[in-house]
Amino acid sequence: MRFSLFFFASQVRPEQVRFVDPNGALISVEDIVLDDEGRFYFPIVTLKVVVDPDLTHEYNALTRQLSLNLNGKRLKLRANSSQVIIQPTKSEVELGASVKLIKGIPHIPLSFFTKLIPQISEYKVNFNRSLSEISLTSKYHFQYQEAKDKRTVVIDPGHGGTDVGCESLNGIREKDVVLDVAKRIQKICKNNNIRVLLTRKDDKTYRPSQRTRIIDQQSSSLFLSLHCNASFSDKISGMDIWINNQNGQIRISNDKKSDVDQNGIFFRPLLQDDHLEKSRRFAKILQAQLVGQSLRPIKIRENPLAILSNIYMPALLLELGYLSNLHDETKLQNETKRQEISICISEAIVVFLGSDKGK
Questions:
Q1: Can you list the positions of beta strands (E) in the chain?
Q2: Triad 37, 39, 41: Cα angle to 5°
C-alpha cells in the first residue's frame, strides 16, 4: 500500500535554494523539490544544516506523524495536516501546507521556515523567489552599550562541532587547537584579574550569527577570534593577525541603533570603524609579544572580515599557524608550545587593557 503523501519521481522537480545569514554570508545551498502546484519542499535534514545542528527527528509511518526536537522545542506535524503543534505549550501554527513523504524522506514546506522558525528562534525569515534565496536576519535591533567592565575580554575559538576547520595530515584539527588555547588564555588571564568569556566552551557547532549574539549579550572591552590556517603548499608557515577594515564599503551613521532601515531593508552596521585605531594598537602589542613564536615575521593584515564586522569593540582575528606545515603542526600539537603561545597572548591582553585605561 502506498501512502497518499508519497510523490512519484515524475511529480517533483529538483531545484536549489540559497540560505544566507544576517550578514548576507552564504550558509548553505540546499536541494528542494517542487510539487505540482509549484510549492517548495525541503528534506528534513535541511533544518539540521541551516537552523539547529542538534536537530533530531522521527517519522512514524503508521500514524504518519513527524516529531522534531528543534531549538529546544518539541514539534509534531501530521501528514495531510498543515498545522504544527509546539510542545509543551500545545500551541499551534498554521503552515498552509502539510508535510510530505518524498521518496521515503520527510519533506517540510517553505512555510515551515517563513511562519514557524520566527516563532521558535531569534530569526526573521524572508524568501526571495526571484533569487531563490532565504535570508535569516535577527529580530532584535543592535544596541551599543559601553563596556562597564574594562577588564572583560571575549575570546572566540573558531569552528567547533561538525565544523572542524582545517586539519593536518596527521589529524590535528583546528577546532581542537583553538579551543585548548582559548581555555589556557582564560585561566592565565583569571590569575591577572581579567575576566575572559568564551563564545564556545565545548565541541559544539555555532553559526557566526550565534557567536555574535553571545558577544552582544556581554559588556566587554576586547574581542579576539582564534583560528589556524592551511595552504596547498606545505612550505607556507607562520602566524597572521587580521583587523577588520571595510575599505570604503557602505557606512551607516554611528547614531543608528537598528540594523534594519525604515523600509525593512537589512544592512550590516560597520561597527568596527569606530574601533579601528584601538584594534591596530592591540595588533601591534600582540605582534610584539608573539615574537619568536612564528618562523617568519608576523604580519598584520587589514581586510573586511565577517566574524569581526558586527562587533562594537577593538577586535582581532589571530591565525596561530599553518596545519599544512610540519613545523607549525608540530608546534601546535605540543602542549608546552601551546602554553607558551597562550602566555604571550595573555600578556598582550594585559598590556593592552593597561594601556587603554582612560582612553
A1: 6-7, 13-20, 26-34, 40-43, 56-60, 65-70, 73-78, 83-87, 91-94, 100-102, 105-109, 123-128, 133-138, 152-157, 195-198, 222-229, 240-244, 299-303, 315-322
A2: 135
- Can you give the residue range of the structural domain that contains 275? 152-355
157 strand-pairing partners: 226
Q: Which of 138, 169, 185 is the last residue of a domain?
A: 138
Convert the pLDDT of each residue in 226-254 to its tens digit: 999 999 999 999 999 999 876 633 333 33
What residues contact residue 344 under an 8 Å CB cut-off, 6+ apart? 289, 290, 293
pTM: 0.56
Residue located via cell numbers 518524498: 102
Domain stop point among 138, 171, 186? 138
CATH no. for residue 334? Answer: 3.40.630.40
Sorted by sequence, the CB contacts under 8 Å of residue 183 that are 6+ apart come out as 198, 201
- φ, ψ for residue 199, nearest 5 deg: -75, -20
